[in-house]
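#help-structures
NK: newbie question, is this the right format to request a structure? protein is Zn-dependent protease
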Amino acid sequence: MAEVRDESLDVLHLLSQLYLRHGRPDSALALLRAVCVLDPDDRRASLTLAHAATRAGQPRESERVVGRLRDEGEPSPVLDLLHGQALAAQGRHGEAELAFEIFVERRLAEQRTSLKGSGR
């Protein structure tokens, strides 16, 4: 039987999104760290944590989160984008450029697969 997700975690995640949208990445980061400790399997919160960490000036934390997510499952364009942003924020521009190129390639591959599946 699937566990019922605690609604308070959803509220914390929503509040973190609002903080991010209104220029308060440090506040968002603090909330997301808590959500990820309380529910380490929440991929959505982990993705948002990686984004917030870069925005809050903590790109190494973002890079660690992206690495953990990659280790737990298949790579995705979103992870490539977050990785590229974290690398760029650290001034590692050559590596960031490569991550962004991989992002574009994977994203285009996903779109082509989606179009084939829809019969277009």
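mod (FA): yep, format's fine, and the tokens are attached above. The mean pLDDT is 91.
NK: thank you!
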